[in-house]
Amino acid sequence: MLKGVAASPGIAIGKVFLYIKERAEINRQNIEESKVEYEIERFKKALEVTQNQIRKIKENALKEFGKDKAEIFEAHLMLASDPELIEGVENMIKTELITADNAVNKVIEQNASVMESLNDEYLKERAVDLRDVGSRIIDNLLGLKSGNLSDLFEPVVVIARDLTPSDTATMKKEMVLGFATDVGGRTSHTAIMARSLEIPAVVGLGNITSQVKNGDIMIIDGLEGIVIVNPDDNTINEYKGKKENYDKKIEKLKEIKDLPAITPDGKKVMLAANIGTPKDVKSALTNGAEGIGLFRTEFLYMDRSTLPTEEEQFEAYKEVAEKMGDRPVTIRTLDIGGDKELPYLDMPKEMNPFLGYRAIRLCLDRTDIFKTQLRAILRASAYGNIQIMYPMISSVEEVRKANAILDEVKAELDKEEIKYDKDVKVGIMVEIPSAAITADILAKEVDFFSIGTNDLTQYTLAVDRMNEHVKEYYQPFNPAILRLIKLVIDAAHKEGKFAAMCGEMAGDPLATIILLGLGLDEFSMSATSIPTVKNIIRNIEYERAKEIAQEVLNIAEAEKIQKMIEKVVRKTE
Ligand code: PEP
Ligand code: MG
């Protein structure tokens, strides 16, 4: 039994699939003319290996899962044998004098982005296939082991060092019973994705990848943050029971999905969902979200080779706005950097990416990127109830600069007679301590705050939110954090603005009563946490929550706060 961080609730019992991948480092240096033939030969060999690999996967799929599942690999095989593609790569090696891996990457990306830009669902899917084949060829050129979560054919628990957003985006959800990873904390993106996919997960296990092998049986307990490797029959039965109880409880909680989040003495708050793509709206609605408190738009920029166009973004924002109807949709402008990279922006490697050139800092510098996004958001605002939110604000100057750019974009749209919501609300994430401390100043310049406790905690306590070695220092219940939260909520209310929270703390049942008592107006979280949080709110008097929050603010140690609150929450369940 190993202990990690409980990242996504639920229990999974299944066969281990060890997902180990090495990173393809494409050699982008030019080659000498005398090396052209050698590179072409290398490419041909890699192509042959790739075709053989795909044939094997196809045979396996046919044998075990039938014709249906095997067909996709027939398509992959055709792509890997496409004369046009092969010729394209060879020509590029010759004319541009580049390595085979570089040429394959370029040709595949060019073709895939053309397919994606045509408004055709079928071709868009083929672009995914083409990229898959492309990375297989590149992996073979570089002698890397290929692995892909989209190849899974039986339900497994996935064990990996870490999972990138693209791994989780391309994986077959129905085949993944659970995740367990070496690295990451509750607020790492793997954890956030696991919660949004409703897949049980334990992260930050240290070295789980070297302690299991393919085919082992594993229990993942995403409630307690433990995994058990090759459990005995008694343990399996015990966990089967636990799983059944948990699944039943979740079903029962869904019954209150359409009831308001109101305390017995009449204090109403808003419960909203965090989403990453338009696809997540479905889960937001089935879990009873009253709005989208955070749309992490960076996912639209990932997994591709060029920036998304205004039109592509507009379509995505409009889709969410329309599906949510009158309910507010808070679209956060690009928050790239930190652990979310965009390889095609070719940003220099940084010593401290979380303290670096990221989010609003990048947008204020690359106004071309920022303006395109703002245009898309404003245009979509004509189709629903959209609000704009800037991430990583550290001072009032940044808000003013961002608003000046927003005004420029509005003026352009006015000139072009393009409609948008002229009263669109503009708020900021409060996730940097300087913003929290100056919340009274900032509250005068914005329509709302949304507290980002994931970053606020890491910056205030100087603890990397991704680093499992310091996980015990990452304390959302640290008095410093609770005081900052109170400061921010009070400052917002003093100016008559609303205070939201979209960091993971907003969905933590242990935090609900404290946040309610501190006066938080909106809690935005992974959709699946909404019913649990609502149940707590519907069972605690607001007056009592205020008293508890007050008591908690007088406790010095995070651990004691947590213990005390655990007792109170248990009573409401
Ligand atoms: C946060 O920092 O709390 C937040 C919600 O933003 P992200 O997790 O995307 O950094
Ligand atoms: Mg953040």
Your description of this structure?
The protein has 573 residues and is α/β, with parallel strands linked by helices. It has three domains: 2-21 and 148-232, Glucose Oxidase, domain 1, CATH 3.50.30.10; 33-142, Enzyme I, Chain A, domain 2; 265-572, Alpha-Beta Barrel (TIM Barrel), CATH 3.20.20.60. Helices cover 49% and strands 14% of the residues. It contains 22 helices and 16 strands. The protein has helices spanning 36-65, 67-80, 83-96, 100-117, 121-141, 165-170, 189-197, 233-254, 281-286, 298-301, 310-324, 359-365, 367-380, 396-415, 433-437, 439-442, 453-461, 479-494, 509-518, 530-537, 542-553, 558-572; strands at residues 2-3, 5-8, 11-19, 156-160, 176-181, 201-203, 217-221, 226-229, 270-275, 292-296, 328-332, 385-390, 425-430, 448-451, 498-501, 522-525. An eight-stranded mixed sheet has the order 1-8-7-3-4-5-6-2. The two termini are 28 Å apart. The protein binds phosphoenolpyruvate and magnesium ion (MG). The site of phosphoenolpyruvate (PEP) has 11 residues, from strand 10 and helix 17.
